[in-house]
Amino acid sequence: MTDKILYRGAEAEICLTAYHQKQMVQKRRVKKSYRIKEIDAQLISFRTKEEAKLITLARTCGVSVPLIYDVDLVGGVITMEYLRGKRIKDILNSLGERDRVRICRKIGESIALLHNHDIIHGDLTTSNMILHDDRIHFIDFGLGSISTELEAKGVDLHVLMEAFESTHSKYPDCFERVFEGYVKAFQRDASDVKKKIDDIVRRGRYR
Q1: By 3-state DSSP, what share of the chain in percent is helix, strand and coil, each rounded to 5?
Q2: CA gap 177, 80 in Å, rounded
Q3: Residue from 90, 99, 118, 123 carrying the catalytic annotation
Q4: How far apart are CA 101 and CA 84, in angstroms?
Q5: What's the pLDDT tens digit per position in 62-97?
Q6: CB-CB contact of 80 with 69 (8 Å)
Q7: 99 lies in which domain range?
Q8: Is 62 left (phi over 0), alpha (psi -120 to 50) or beta?
């Protein structure tokens, strides 16, 4: 099959491709001509390695993510399972209330599982969540990191709060439902995270 570009961003291309006669997704990091060649190669290798590591860690924490089949550090390519599902972004607004609340709570529980192990996704939007086999799979850990800081967890959730406000403003209670799921699964005091989110909102308001 001919490779099909599903998404082209500033840092990477997401392609549908054939790998060992199976349909797979490849995340291919883009070379930057404005960077020194050796530094660019090091950055691509490092970021590819870190993202693959975070995806693998997320799976061990019980979070649904695509299976990784191959990692090419030189080429900056991660070959992953192709999830034949739908982005949460594309379906959330059309769901009935019961399903919408259920999905939002499941999102919150999954984020808590990540945060329990200090995994920060870095780009929590409904574009980076795919509903497949009634499980929410998290994709694109390219901006992710490991951090014990409460600030990082607050920022992670604040990004999602803003995503809901811009993409799913029709249902203003979505983030509240997400946080209900988060409280249920978070192993530490979720009220500390909530205070940090409120603090980030205030800081944004008074810039």
Answers
A1: 50, 20, 30
A2: 30
A3: 123
A4: 23
A5: 999 999 999 999 999 999 999 999 999 999 999 999
A6: yes
A7: 86-205
A8: left
Q: CA dihedral in degrees (136, 50, 118, 90; nearest 10)?
A: -20
Identify the CA nearest to 54 among candidates 147, 178, 155: 147
Task: Give the model's pLDDT for residue 55.
Answer: 98
- Contact between 66 and 16 under an 8 Å Cβ cutoff? The reply is no
Q: Are residues 34 and 115 in the same domain?
A: no
Res 149: pLDDT: 97
- Name the residue with higher pLDDT: 26 or 3: 26
* 118 shares a domain with 59: no
pTM, rounded to two decimals: 0.93
- E strand or H helix at 188, and its extent? none
Same domain, 196 and 103: yes
Assess whether 123 carries a catalytic annotation: yes
- CATH of residue 57's domain is 3.30.200.20
Q: For the domain that residue 125 is a member of, what is the CATH number?
A: 1.10.510.10
Q: Does the pLDDT at position 196 exceed 60?
A: yes
**Domain stops at, among 81, 99, 117:** 81
> Average pLDDT in the 95-102 region?
96
> What average pLDDT does this structure show over 43-57?
97
User: Of 192, 160, 184, whose CA–CA distance to 112 is shortest?
Assistant: 184
